[in-house]
Amino acid sequence: MKQITGADLFVKALKEEKVDVLFAYPGGQAIDLFNALYGEKEIDVILPRHEQGLIHAADGYARSTGKVGVCLVTSGPGATNLVTGIATANYDSVPLVCFTGQVPTNLIGNDAFQEVDIVGITRSICKYAVTVRKREDLAETIKKAFIIAKTGKPGVVVVDLPKDIQRAYGSDAYPEEVVIRGYKPQLSVHMGQISKAVELLNHAEKPVFLIGGGVNIACANREMTQLAELTGVPVVTTIMGKGAGIPDIENIMAISALFDISIDELLSNEKGAKKPADYLYESITEYDIDEPKRYDMKFGGAKQFTLSGYEGEKIRVRLVSNTMPTLQNDFKVRIDDIKRRIDVDVNRKNGVTEATAKEAVSIFVQIPTPYIGKIECAVNAETVEIRSLECESIELDIKTPDVILADVTGMVEINCNLDMEVFCHSLNGEVAINQVSATSKIHVPKDAAFTAVAKGIGTSISYEKDGKQTEPFSVPEAENIIELNGIKSELVICTDRERS
Length: 500
Known about the structure:
The chain is an alpha/beta fold. Helix 1 runs parallel beside helix 7 (138-150) and helix 3 runs parallel beside helix 5.
């Protein structure tokens, strides 16, 4: 049988328990565990700024996914920083397994540096707490921890791992099942309790259902709704039971109409039952904006790029694909807030090329309308769309054959040395096109009034109506301006029935 360290067995155990997200903060007594995790691609290690934030993040992860949240911290202050989060999760019946580093077993109880009896501290606020004192007990203890955390009434399990246990060599076997003496959670319906409840309900003068978090944990929302409808008994909920009862039907109908979701979908209890998405894979990055900003954004390659304004308070960058399941790992979106400027950069990782990005990835960017100043945007895409934006100026440094401007107010400056077509759904300001040795077309509404200006060296502007060359139809001194700048470039201004 293969001999491996306790740290390597720890990693193997996480993979056997299907753990793909680990909330962890490094420290001296846990460093061997982090060394074993280094390079593991199946486990995503989330590094917080503080251990207390770590356990609350794991708590939220467990609540939202239904999986067991897993934490890893070092001994002493690292472990004690988890206490509030452990109590919160345990009292709310949230399944967590918290691994804490510990000083070597021969130093426990000797007031060693950063030695804390975390098992004693947390025993009263968690479901189970244990210190692993023998290497041969490590695999079985971790298996028990996950079983206890997620079965019966879910809760928190604390597993204390001394440093010598992490380093000790032993068997690489991890059990599929274990017997836990004295632990026999009720996993099926207790008919005796059901009969007593029915009898009490029949004899009650003013019956009421008080619904707790157990209904949500057991995924019994639909069944609870059916029971309340059949009996006509009124329903109230605890804080943890919110959402498990029967909302007012008018509220249900209003929510259904607002989010375009059927009432059956709203009341459905099936986890993961979602409205079909427009893309198979997506990655969303958001950042709060609280004052007008200038935006400097670089996106690299994309199949389609759309920039729009909306009534919100966050800049939102959404990357989507139908062919890249590793989208979140292959692209890093960075948003920096520098005084009165927001910098956005999309960086490719893992060898993904710009050509691949142009074939497989589309980018949608939303900027909060109340906080839009100047915008500078660089992207290489097959199609670039700017929609519902009102700002001082937008400068587009792009490589694209097609640009769509819809509901855009202000100055739009387009720098592109490729032949391209610009489709303006309306004209509300100035469109300036800067090119070198290129020929482009701009389609404008038939009733648009504008002044056309050609600047630079060897530039010219011509006109087309319904696909045929015609006399100039620009209007002198109009409020709207179409301008061509550059060297040896031509711009054709078109109006046609299809585009208008």
